[in-house]
Specification:
The protein is mostly beta strands and 230 residues long. Helices cover 4% and strands 43% of the residues. Strands 1, 2, 3, 4 and 5 form a five-stranded antiparallel sheet that branches. The chain is globular.
Length: 230
């Protein structure tokens, strides 16, 4: 028997939690990704050996589920809501969802999708309870974790590597939208050095976007970007 830890709903194994946002009505939304790995499949991948050590990515799993945990009581309890399930019959998907709230309260979820060359998107008009079908967001991405950040002035920032040629994870750019992600008029290159930039995470504070990111799987970089004029 497994020990119950944390607040319900207790999430199954092979669930990965991403960065929470707090909406204008103080609802907390925490994105997650989940893989329905059976016990038999779990035992198989632990028993077998893979030369690339990527044991988890060798699971034979039908889909990657992305969704949100919704809390209206400051994290004491949560409601799990499924946003989408992307088929993995054609290959592995590591979605790493990120969220932002638009001016009308719509919640946007952006996800990476391996081998597609783009970020993918779905939207919720009811605070994360139900979601639209997944569609191509039209933002280039080499299967790399994006990060959306709501700014206090209503603008939305995106940290991304807008490159869909091959799997190169550069250049690192900061985009800012002032029209609910319809367009991205502000685009700033933070580094065009040929390197692999991955796993950005950060926040907006007092006119600055501050975030950390991994470089070449060896170094952690910290950026403090003044966006007062963006």
């Amino acid at each position: 028997r497994k020990q119950e830890i944390g607040t319900k709903p207790l999430l199954p194994e092979y669930t990965f939690i991403r960065g929470m946002i707090v909406c204008k009505d103080n609802t907390q939304l925490t994105p997650y990704q989940y893989y329905p790995v059976t016990k038999e499949e779990h035992d198989r991948i632990l028993f077998e050996e893979y030369p690339d050590k990527a044991v988890f990515a060798n699971t034979r799993t039908p889909y990657c589920e992305s969704g949100v945990l919704i809390s209206h009581d400051d994290g004491k309890t949560h409601q799990r809501a499924v946003a989408c399930r992307m088929s993995m019959y054609e290959g592995w998907i590591w979605s790493e969802p990120t969220l932002a709230e638009l001016s009308d309260g719509t919640i946007v979820m952006l996800m990476r999708k391996c081998r597609s060359g783009w970020l993918w998107r779905c939207d919720s008009a009811d605070g994360g309870k139900t979601w639209s079908k997944v569609y191509n967001a039209g933002i280039p991405n080499p299967s790399n974790k994006p990060k959306l950040i709501n700014m206090k002035n209503g603008k939305i920032a995106l940290l991304n590597v807008p490159n869909n040629i091959g799997r190169e994870r550069y250049p690192l750019e900061l985009w800012i939208s002032d029209d609910d992600m319809k367009t991205w008029k502000y685009k700033k290159s933070l580094s065009d050095i040929r390197a692999s930039y991955s796993y950005s995470d950060g926040f907006y504070e007092n006119g600055h976007i501050m975030f950390s990111i991994e470089k070449d799987r060896k170094t952690i970089l910290f950026f403090d970007v003044d966006v007062d004029e963006a």
